[in-house]
Amino acid sequence: MEAPRIGIIGGSGVYDIDGLENVTTRYPDTPYGKPSDEIVIGELAGNAVAFLPRHGKGHRISPSELPAQANIWAMKTLGVTHLVSISAVGSLKEEFAPRDVVIPDQILDRTKGVRPATFFDGGVVAHIAFAEPYCPELRQIMLKAATESGGGTHDGGTMVVMEGPQFSTKAESNFYRQIGGGVIGMTALPEAKLAREAEICYCTVALVTDYDCWHESEESVTVEMIIAHLQANVERAKRLIMLAVPMIASATRDCACGSAMAGALITNPAAISDKRRKELGLLLDKYLG
User: Fold this and answer.
1) Longest C-alpha distance within the chain, in Å?
2) Residue 254 annotated in active site
3) Among residues 29, 210, 254, 285, which one is catalytic?
4) Cα–Cα distance for residue pair 277/289, rounded to 1 Å
5) What is the mean pLDDT of the segment spanning 66-86?
C-alpha cells in the first residue's frame, strides 16, 4: 500500500472509520512525544488513508491537553498531504442548526496560550502566512462531499476556538456572536497552524451539535445534548468521508499549502544549531538541503 496521502482526525464521536481494508496501525515517536493514539492506516475504496482519533480511544484527552504537535508531525512523517478534521461544534447562528454541517473558512483564536502552536522555537523562527487558515481547494472538496451526504450544509463561517474544557458563559457566547463567530469549538487550533507549518492542506468539517448557550428558546449546551445529536452527526460524517476520499485522491494540488514555508524562515540558516536543524529536518530539509 502506498504512503497515506489523506489523513483524517476524528473529533468527539468519530473514533473509527467504516470500510477500511488492509488495516495496519502505527504509533510513532515524534520529537513532541506520542500522538493521541495509534494511527490506523488502511484503504478506503482503494485509497490510502491515515486515521487518528483526536481525543484517543475512549475520549481520554482534554482539548487543552491534546498533543497537537505530535499529531501533525506523525501525519507528516506518514506522507499525509491532505488532512481533514472532523469536529463537533456549537452554533453561534440561528441558521446553523444542530445536525447541520458547516465548512468554515476563518478561525478566531480565543485560546489561552497554553497550547504549543508552532514547531519553530528554540532558536529557529518562522512566520507563515495564515490569512486564509483553511486550504481553499480542500474546502471545496469537503463542501461538495458534505452537500452530497445529505442534510443542511453551509459554505463558510468563522470558527471560534475557545479554551476548554468548560463550555462558554452566556456573556462569552453573545460576545462571540457580536464579533462574527459562526461556530465554536475547542480543537481547530493549534492544529490548523501546525498543519500549515508542515505544508499540509487542512480543512475542518464542523458537525453542529447545539446552539451553545446564547439561544433563548433552546436549553444551554450539555454533554447529554451533544451526545444525542452526535449519533446522527457521526453517521453523516462517515458518509461524507466515503464521498470525500476519492475526490481528494483524484484532485491535483494547486494551492499554496505545499510551499507555505517558502520565505517563512527568518532565522539565518547559519545561526541554526545542528541539533535544531536535525530536529526540524522533516520541515526544513526541503529548503536548506
Assistant:
1) 61
2) no
3) 210
4) 10
5) 97
Cell of 3: 504512503
- Catalytic-role residue among 212, 254, 274, 285: 212
Integer Cα distance of 259 and 141 in angstroms: 20
DSSP string, 113-171: S-S---S--SS--B----SS-S-HHHHHHHHHHHHHT-S-EEE--EEEEE--SS---HH
Q: Average the pLDDT over 173-191 and give the result.
A: 97
Does residue 289 contact residue 265 with C-beta atoms inside 8 Å?
no
pTM to 2 decimal places: 0.94
Query: At the topology level of CATH, where does 6-288 sit?
Result: Rossmann fold (3.40.50)
Sequence-ordered list of residues with C-beta below 8 angstroms from that of 131, at least 6 positions apart, any chain:
none
Band (pLDDT 50/70/90 cuts) for residue 288 is very high
Determine contact, residues 153/146, Cβ cutoff 8 Å.
yes
How is residue 140 written as a grid cell? 471545496
CB 224 within 8 A of CB 85: no
Measured CA to CA in angstroms, residue 151 lies from 92, 96, 101, 187, 230 at distances of: 19, 12, 8, 24, 14
Spatial distance between the Cα atoms of 197 and 207, rounded to a whole number of angstroms: 26
How would residue 213 be classed by pLDDT, with cut points 50, 70 and 90?
A: confident
Reported confidence tier of residue 46, pLDDT bands at 50, 70, 90: very high
* SS3 (DSSP) at 11: coil
Whether 210 is a known active-site residue: answer yes
